[in-house]
Every structure is written in C-alpha cells, then in structure tokens.
Amino acid sequence: KLKLLNSINNLAGLEEIIRASDLSNANKEGECFVHVASGMGQLDVLKFLHFKGADLFRLDENSESGVHWAARQGHKDVIEFLHQRGLSLNTPNKAGDTPLHLAAKQGHSQTVDFLCKHGADKNRPNEVRSNFKFEIFI
Fold it and tell me: Whole-prediction pTM value?
C-alpha cells in the first residue's frame, strides 16, 4: 500500500486508500505512510495523515522519522510542520546521522540553514565522528 502513495496526487484518492488500510501499517523496512509522504515533500498529504491520526513519531527500521526522510530530500516545509508538532531535529538514526547530517550530505543548503536556525546541533558528530560541517565538503 505504501507504493500506492507514490502515485497519489490527490487527497480524494489517498482517502480511499486510507479507508482500506491501517495508518500504522508499515512495510518490512518499517516505512509507513508518514515516512513516504515526508520524503516526497507531500506536505498536504502529511497534514491529511496527521488529521486522520497517523503517528508522526513512528521510526522506520533505521530509526528514522519523517524529519530524516524530509531532510535527506531537502523538504524544509515538511521539516517545519513535523518540528512544530514536537519532532526533534537532533535525533540520530542508527548510523548516528541527524537530519542535519543527512541534509548536508545531499547538499541541501537551504534545509541546512533552516535546521541550524531552528536548533539543530551543529557540533554533534555521527558514528564516523564527522559533524555536519565535514559532511558539506564530502
């Protein structure tokens, strides 16, 4: 059902899928609707999922939240929405990468700037002992 979200471009179609599924369902990697919508930058879909009671705090098997998924793709509007609802900008995934590390690795400078201005820890190293400043130059 998560693959279906990739092809949904309207909330009416999404509502039909949601009626037939459980919002807490995840695939074998622990990915749920919230993760996919966050990674795709589908803020309207994410707001709809939240309204329908989806768990915004759910982590996938890599200990990543929607904030990680959005940061990796540079979707700062999604990050802002999730952060306003209490999700941390400093939670590391299993590799020790925070959303700031992920945004920096992908070269999303506006997202890096947003994260830094909203409290992301610029000095926190990941598991290979690099901080986001190092990641920018990789």
Answer: 0.83
